[in-house]
Design brief:
The chain is an alpha+beta fold. Helix content is 46%, strand content 16%. The protein has one domain: 2-Layer Sandwich (Beta Polymerase, domain 2). It has a five-stranded mixed sheet with strand order 1-2-5-4-3. α1 packs across α3. The longest helix is centred in the first third of the chain and has 27 residues.
C-alpha cells in the first residue's frame, strides 16, 4: 500500500506541474503543445484508461523564439529555467523531486542530430485534453517514430493498441517512418 500511495502522490504532483505550466503559457498567449510520454498517456487515456502508461516528466514543443517569454511567464508559477547537458528545462521550485521537470523541445529542430526529422511545426488543430494543448496523434506518431528509442516504440504500441494510429495517419508517413511502424507492429 505504501508504494501505491507514493505513486499516487507523484501522479498528482506531475499533473499539478503540467497544469501550472500550461496555465502560465496560456495566460501569456505563448503557443505550445504537450508531446512525449505525457501526450501519449493523455491520448491513450481518452480511449482506454487501463491501457494508459504513465510517464515521469513532461515534454513540451515550443518555438525557440519564445524561450525568453516562456522563462518570464513561468517564473511566477514556480518554475526555474535551466540548460544542462544540452537540455532546456523548467524545474519545479516548489518540489524537491526534480523528476517533474518540463523539458522544452523546439519546433523545427531535431532533438538529436541522429533523428530523421525535426520536430513538426504546430498543427492548427491541437487537441485540448485535461485543459492542455496536446500534439495531435499524427504529429506525435511522427516524433515517436523519428526518435525510435525503446520508450518511443512502447508509446507507439500503446497508441496503436487503442486504435489511435489510423490508416490515414499511417499513409501520410514517409516510407522510412512507415517501415519503423511496421517494425513496432511486428514485435507486438
Amino acid at each position: 500500500m505504501l508504494a501505491l500511495t507514493a505513486f499516487d502522490k507523484f501522479v498528482e504532483q506531475l499533473f499539478e506541474v503540467m497544469k501550472r505550466f500550461t496555465g502560465a503559457l496560456s495566460q501569456a498567449g505563448i503557443e505550445y503543445r504537450l508531446i512525449g510520454g505525457m501526450a501519449a498517456f493523455l491520448h491513450v487515456n481518452v480511449r482506454n484508461p487501463i491501457a494508459a502508461r504513465f510517464t515521469s516528466d513532461i515534454d513540451a514543443a515550443v518555438s525557440r523564439s519564445d524561450l525568453d517569454s516562456i522563462i518570464r511567464a513561468v517564473a511566477p508559477f514556480g518554475f526555474i529555467y535551466r540548460h544542462a547537458a544540452g537540455v532546456d528545462m523548467l524545474l519545479d521550485s516548489t518540489s524537491p523531486d526534480k523528476r517533474s521537470a518540463v523539458h522544452l523541445i523546439f519546433v523545427g529542430e531535431k532533438v538529436r542530430a541522429s533523428d530523421l526529422e525535426a520536430v513538426p511545426a504546430f498543427s492548427p488543430a491541437a487537441e485540448t485534453i485535461e485543459g492542455a494543448l496536446v500534439a495531435p496523434v499524427a504529429d506525435l506518431v511522427r516524433m515517436k517514430l523519428t526518435s525510435f528509442r525503446l520508450k518511443d516504440r512502447v508509446h507507439i504500441q500503446d497508441m496503436d493498441g487503442v486504435g489511435l494510429i489510423t490508416p490515414e495517419i499511417e499513409s501520410a508517413l514517409p516510407e522510412v517512418l512507415r517501415d519503423r511502424l511496421s517494425q513496432v507492429r511486428a514485435t507486438e
